Amino acid sequence: LPVLAIVGRPNVGKSALVNRILGRREAVVEDKPGVTRDRVAYKAEWAGRRFTLVDTGGWEPDAAGINAAVAAQAEVAIDLADVVLFVVDSNVGATATDEHVVKLLRRANRPVFLAANKVDDARQEPQSSALWSLGLGEPYPVSALHGRGVADLLDLIMAKMPEVSAVAKQELGGPRRVAILGRPNVGKSSLLNKAAGEERVVVNELAGTTRDPVDEQIELGGKVWTFVDTAGIRKRVHLQQGADFYASLRTSAALEKAEVAVVVLDVTEPISTQDLRIIDLVLESGRALVLAFNKWDLLDDDRRRYLEREIEQDLHHVTWAPRVNISARTGRHLEKLVPALELALESWDTRVPTGKFNAFLAELTASHPHPVRGGKQPRILFGTQAASRPPTFVLFTTGFLDPGYRRYVQRRLREIYGFEGSPIVVNMRVRE
Ligand code: GDP
């Protein structure tokens, strides 16, 4: 989906605006500085068109850190958003920080909209005119709190939103899109450099060859792949505080552009909550997943045994993801990455014909019927695959299925179809 990123200083009302656009109170408004909100990307819809709304303001720095934090927001927005919405507090007017952000945003080859927030009634509108001085064009007066002006602004934004998302474009036959993810120092950039090697196809300079300068086309295994947000891998955001937040913002935004994620883990260190958080972001995004265990050259027998136990304990929910044990330094087993990516994408693309799927369901319910609950036994009447990328199934039932039974259906689906490297979704519709 196309990405709209919201950028602005703390307390200008970004979260309120996110809530207003989503039409629900999901992004919590926090007045305390230093608060990290977990969610950064939301599925949004306006006038029948879907897009991803990225809230870059999840981490609110103290006064000393404002410039760096807002610069980091702008950097992510510039690299990864299709349209940027820059929010200014019209009661305060343009500050030096705002002007700094504008300078950064100017470099972006992206449509930028300027929202003058906190214009709660018509009498305050003249305040917003002062923001012409920022040089971002017309300031749009809005009140995130009351909703005033937001609909009109969204109409204008949607008109600038690309029709075809990066993923949809791929369906037209472009190179497949890969995100390399992982916490700092696991070896992402080493992997990228080693894998690309001499074969790097330098096409970024040519106008129009890639949509984003931060994406790079690289030939691997005889095929061209688009690696998304390679700029994010190569450059480091130098922030004292909030670095984790911006890393996770970048991860979420990169996933939006990718079809498959390679999550890189460092075998010399225990699997951490940060690693698991990144894997969760991939699962949430519904993208295909490959796990790359890197620095294999440094693994001794003791650590190896321990690692196996850790994998069993911490990664039991992603046993379906292909694993490659590699060394970005020596090049060990790097050639296994491409088949793993291909396998994951093939699973992600899979469509099971309705006839076959119902034969599968008939066999499953015959051999293992749903247990009777309170004198009733919910039955599966019919099923169909509603979507691929990832494979998404809908079961029409006569009652709610136990979570345990739903997991059983998922497990059987994997046993029969594999779906290695792809999450699968099983939804339910109860027919009264
Ligand atoms: P990134 O932050 O994830 O991009 O990590 P880097 O690619 O910058 O790597 C972090 C450090 O780990 C660097 O000093 C690399 O040389 C080192 N490194 C990366 N991959 C390997 C590997 O496979 N084996 C060994 N021994 N060192 C590695």
From TrEMBL:
| Binding annotation for GTP 2 | 182-189, 229-233, 294-297
Tagged with keyword Nucleotide-binding: yes
Where GTP 1 is bound, by residue? 8-15, 55-59, 117-120
Keywords, alphabetical = GTP-binding, Nucleotide-binding, Repeat, Ribosome biogenesis
Looking at the record, the residues that make up the EngA-type G domain are 2-165, 176-349
What the record says about family reads: Belongs to the TRAFAC class TrmE-Era-EngA-EngB-Septin-like GTPase superfamily. EngA (Der) GTPase family.
Q: How does it assemble?
A: Associates with the 50S ribosomal subunit.
- Role played: GTPase that plays an essential role in the late steps of ribosome biogenesis.
Record's protein name: GTPase Der
Q: Which organism is it from?
A: Herbiconiux gentiana
Tell me the name of the encoding gene. der
